[in-house]
Amino acid sequence: MPEDFPADSVGLVRPQTMAFDTPLELACNRALGPYELVYETYGQLNATASNAILICHALSGHHHAAGFHDFDDRKPGWWNHYIGPGKPIDTDKFFIVSLNNLGGCNGSTGPTSINPATDKPWGPDFPKMRVRDWVNSQVRLADRLGINCWAAVIGGSLGGMQAMRWALEYPNRIKHCVVIASAMKLSAQNIAFNETARQAILADPEYHNGRYQEHQSYPKSGLSVARMIGHITYLSGDGMGKKFGRELRSGSFEQGVDEPVEFQIESYLRYQGGIFADSFDANTYLLMTRALDYFDLAREYQDNPVEAFKRAQCQFLVVSFNSDWRFAPERSREIVDALMGANKAVSYAEIDSSFGHDAFLLPNERYQTVFNNYMANVFLESIASDLKVNG
Amino acid sequence: MPEDFPADSVGLVRPQTMAFDTPLELACNRALGPYELVYETYGQLNATASNAILICHALSGHHHAAGFHDFDDRKPGWWNHYIGPGKPIDTDKFFIVSLNNLGGCNGSTGPTSINPATDKPWGPDFPKMRVRDWVNSQVRLADRLGINCWAAVIGGSLGGMQAMRWALEYPNRIKHCVVIASAMKLSAQNIAFNETARQAILADPEYHNGRYQEHQSYPKSGLSVARMIGHITYLSGDGMGKKFGRELRSGSFEQGVDEPVEFQIESYLRYQGGIFADSFDANTYLLMTRALDYFDLAREYQDNPVEAFKRAQCQFLVVSFNSDWRFAPERSREIVDALMGANKAVSYAEIDSSFGHDAFLLPNERYQTVFNNYMANVFLESIASDLKVNG
User: Fold this and answer.
1) More confident residue, A253 or B51
2) How far apart are CA B111 and CA B129, in angstroms?
3) What pLDDT was estimated at residue A2?
4) B246–A188: do the CB atoms touch at under 8 Å?
């Protein structure tokens, strides 16, 4: 009964799987294939395929960005606030494609898949992925879906890096690039947090050098600590203070009382770490954080972002959040400055929010307005180009 | 040969041990004792004992704050930049006492000591320590050293919390309180980082519920990850960027090259984590981080810092560093505001530094000047009070 779903939801969605027989050449010089990509689509592709939008996911994201998988689903897809009828990424206007990236753990070929060469799970032998490899795999998906040019490629965080890579490497196949809470490359501090998270996983004896599946074990503790580290950096200090403060979950600070004290923030973080560790693959976590660390937009453009962006033919929307210290507004402003240096059309919005990096997933009036207005223009342009084609 | 030591060093120092037979009543309602405190002293106590200074250490600190333990020592004590002849804490003027706190792992009674009730190491059964317990133990040490009133109690970070607790609970025994890079209580984010570090230790199977000594094991991996987390938060993002950037230690990002890439920051952090884990006790780390979390200056003063500070009789110097995000200047300004609200004499300096929280340990011209000038006045006052006594 569709009545069960909110009116602004895309409702019931079903993941699809596309198999690719031809191996994909990777940046590391290895080839991966055959492989499969799991993806979802929302909305209808128009006759000229001019209204297609690609959603690129972040570190722990996946293909399920909007709607519900069944009627008992209590939580919709991870970007449901922004994808749906009447929402910025409007399913009444656009045909939206959202995939699980290669190396992921939500259905696309990744470390938990069987390596045909050994008949065992890939585990740590799964090839290292770079952002450009994902983009290349997304190009093949676009080809198979009959999408020659995306009306927009959109992503937050690691997803924004994919969107920018699209703009540089496939300039004729993307009209708009929407880069939210992202950066042209990680800072030393970003890398430091990622490495500490990786060490937490690698130090867990259940990790078994990545072959935990073969050992029927799982590095849950390590992955949980890794997620706790990440989680702190996705929130802002102020936001955390407002939500949790120094409130106690149990125990007492009374003098003369010898009982364990637990702060709310402690149990919250442990709970989040545990939930994540139950549903995510440790090798995928390592692979995704390394892809983040390794991304450097302008590396092969003489480390000159202006030169890099000169290749782009699309228009850009860049969005940052003032309390985001993992991908701070300064990082977005660097993108904007480079785009302006390259004489590209760019809109930039710095949004007030206390939710830190996570803000890109959450409702926020100004963010919604900015996003909505930009996407309305993306749609008008796609119609206009159809009129030109037809006329 | 003393010629071997720098002229502005206190030279060779020798730790001393003081045994206390009478148990110390703790905030948790347990009593600890007999116990020992390890401490060092620098400079000469004057006849009226008016020139004594107490140094309180931070999370991973200890009694060895200045000078060298032997002629082969390559590294002096942890605050050698600020303690010595002609330095702010001038050993030609003051008699300086620096101890290892109870629960520590550098010689004072702590989790690695033998619990007389069981004849086994205390391990996780060592009583929970609060900042006030340390202050009470320091009071006893002062009594035994014949110091009725400190010319100053000085501490950075967790040490600053002890200095403030002195000012509130023993107002007649402290003339000056120097609080550097500290806070009246930790934020939710601070607690979150501490809890994640603790989880890294607790998750290490070598931890054995804290009884690793009895198991002849040691949670080195867990403690190393814990330290990595801490270390990131002691540095500033900018400082880390300047020092390490995205420089590689090994490997290459060339396309078509399949070799592991290692950033400088990764190997640096792992190295630091490993060194720390080799020299520190995991149960002490848990105990110290909990003492940090639990400290709340004004808790028993109706959560009103102004009311709390009204008890103080001393003068205050408060220092913060602009790139310190673990104990941000805002936290120091809260201390200053409360002191002013309580009509206390307070000097405040916010120092420019790119070294984050660690800046309190490092050379910095303005910090040195401010500290020096303040301490020069502390000394003049102590002389003046002696003249009054003698006159």
Assistant:
1) B51
2) 11
3) 46
4) yes
Asked if residue B339 and residue B191 are part of one domain, the reply reads no
Residues A348 and A235 in one domain: no
* Partner A, chain B 257-276, Cβ-Cβ below 8 Å: 257-258, 261, 263, 265-266, 269-270, 273
Beta strands in chain B (DSSP E): 16-20, 24-25, 31-32, 35-42, 52-56, 83-84, 89-90, 95-99, 114-115, 120-121, 152-156, 176-180, 248-250, 262-263, 315-321, 346-351
Amino acid B280 reads: F
- What residues of B are labeled active site? 157, 324, 357
CA–CA gap between residue A321 and residue A316 (Å, rounded): 17
Q: Same structural domain for residues A45 and A138? A: yes
Please indicate whether, in this complex, the C-beta atoms of A270 and B195 are within 8 angstroms of each other: yes
User: What is the domain-level CATH number for residue A254?
Assistant: 1.10.1740.110
Of A248, A275, A294, which closes a domain?
A294
On whether both A312 and A272 belong to a single domain, the answer is no
Report CA-CA distances (Å) from A125 to A35, A135, B326. 15, 21, 38
User: Which one from A90, A204, A281, A324 is the annotated catalytic residue?
Assistant: A324
What CATH number corresponds to the domain at position B63? Answer: 3.40.50.1820
Measure the CA–CA gap between B242 and A187, rounded to whole angstroms. Answer: 10
User: Are B144 and B16 part of one and the same domain?
Assistant: yes
Chain A interface, best mutation among B225, B257, B268, B292, by max A CB count within 10 A: B225
Query: Which among A268, A294, A320 is the end of a domain?
Result: A294
Q: Is A15 in the same domain as A126?
A: yes
pTM surpassing 0.80? Answer: yes
User: Smallest CA–CA separation between B80 and chain A, in Å?
Assistant: 28
- Residue-range definition of the domain harbouring residue A224: 187-294
Asked if A129 and A157 sit in the same domain, the reply is: yes
Give the pLDDT confidence of B159-207 residue by residue, as tens digits. 999 999 999 999 999 999 999 999 999 999 999 999 999 999 999 999 9
Interface of B with A in 169-208 (CB under 8 A): 185-189, 191-193, 195-196, 199-200, 203-205
Dist. CA A200–CA A313, nearest whole Å = 42
Look at A265 and B293 and tell me if their CB atoms are within 8 Å. Answer: no
Same domain as A259, residue A124: no
Contact B258 A222 (CB under 8 A): no
Contact B182, B155 (CB under 8 A): yes
Q: Is B125 on the interface with A (CB under 8 A)?
A: no
* The total number of structural domains that make up chain B: 2
pLDDT tens profile A81-106: 999 999 999 999 999 999 999 999 99
Q: Does B221 touch chain A (CB under 8 A)?
A: yes
